[in-house]
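Prompt: May I have another protein with tokenized structure?
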Amino acid sequence: MSSSSTTTAAAAVSAADKGGGTSITTIHPDVIQTHILNRLDGPTLASTSCASAELLSLCNDDHLWKDICNSTWPSTADPRVRDAISAFPSGHRSFYSDAFPSALRQKSDQKRPPPPPSETSELISAVDIYYDDELVYSKVMVTEADSAWFLNTPFRVDLLDHKETVTTPLKFDDDGTFVSRARERLRVSWVIIDPVRKRAVNVASQQAVEARRHWLSEDIQLRYAIVAAAAGGGGGDMVQCGVVVTCGGTEMGQVRVKEVSMQIEDMEGKGLTGMDSLVILEGAMDGPRSRNDSKVERETYEMFLRTKAFCSERKQRREKGLDMVCMTTGVSIFIAVILMFFLSR
């Protein structure tokens, strides 16, 4: 940094301390970018860009947003992801605005028209797994989205290869806190990128919305899920985009991630086909966003489970009613046949 820039910055700070009202824009732009803006996180940088036209221009520098994206999601440094992001309208800033906030479930009381055929040929999954703030695993996967097999079979992406496991700093114990510690300290980010539509969405919740322990294997399953509106349905139709992480302990007490998968399920717990999943993902990409709030995500998921249970009970009552009608009809027919038999003698 030049001596003149240092003097200007010092003068501005001194004037501000004395209540002089000196604008930050009087500081040399190089000083602002290299000593101020590069220290901000994404939300703060976005807020700073709204302060003035000069700051907007400085904050739109793609290098700033690239560094933020790479530190937030190390998987974005992969060449395949980097090439896809370069085609976004505003590069890394557009990607950040898509992937960082939580996707908000759209509410609608009316049926939506059938969506047009998707032009998406592939989906890129950028996945990062953290223990607290420590990265433990990062991977990028590309899924072909235009084959007949993909479109007509249940959509599911498995992150780990066969017999591949991931070591975590988490320790296995029997004091009853293992599940809660795993739920609180293990984080997953699963960003799905559509290179054709130049959009992205994070389908994993900020924290696990559900944690279960298998009674036999003692493995735990952590679910990171967001709730989205079902394709072509009304306001009551929902699906969950879920990332399930299965963890297990070793003989040395170390916890390893055994399986990580992502799929979209309907209210009956059935996995959607690739064609239906594309519609859901495109709707989530184009839909509104909200500030990350793990409590709201957990409450939304619990609401989804309650609605799912209600629909299941209603279906069972309907089926039970149909069974009673069929049984009554059968008995009536049987009695009528018996009466006709005796009357005809």
About this structure: The two ends are 115 Å apart (CA to CA). Residues 150 and 274 are 5 Å apart (CA to CA). The first strand starts at residue 102 and ends at 103.
